[in-house]
Cytochrome b5 heme-binding domain-containing protein
Amino acid sequence: MSPELRPGVYSAQEIRKHSSPSDLWMTIHGKVYDVTAFAQEHPGGVEVLLDCGGVDATEAFDDVAHSDLAREMLEPYFVGFAESAQRENTKEVSDPEKAPETAAKCTKRNDKLRDFRRQKTCASVLAGVALSCVIVVMILQKIQWLSLIQR
Ligand code: HEM
């Protein structure tokens, strides 16, 4: 069977061919996007998109909780539909050697990002607590100072 079944409907095999920085496709919610021109402008960095090149990036895309604007930004890059979104999602592909590895990389990157975000949140909370402590100490010192003056 021809990899390209009919115009705008692509098999997993066909999509997987487009996984290089100069030819970068990915599937998101059953739709295929050619994000070659967008990759360098991606606010989340080019690396995450390269990791998702040629595979189903639905999970990775949703995990980041992209804004509505990000979803709208996808539309100009739409090139067609994945032949079987179902098959893509379960990573059941005709080249089991390569594709699952690439797909795992796509979601693994998000795990790292999640850890990084968690660390960022912890650091912000700690900074907030430290700042509050400094403010409390300053207030206490001021009160002590005022009470000394009044004596
Ligand atoms: C190709 C389609 C994509 C588009 C159009 C897109 C667009 C955007 C936009 C506009 C932002 C800025 C924040 C927002 O408005 O949501 C963003 C941030 C981000 N994106 Fe994407 N994105 C795409 C795919 C992906 C994929 C597949 C991943 C993950 C593997 C990813 C990971 C991220 C990350 C980590 C950020 C930074 C979020 C943060 O700083 O909190 N993006 N993206």
Summary: Residues 112-150 form one domain. Residues 88-98 have pLDDT under 50 and may be disordered. The longest helix spans residues 99-150. Strands lie at 4-6, 9-10, 19-20, 23-28, 31-34, 78-82.
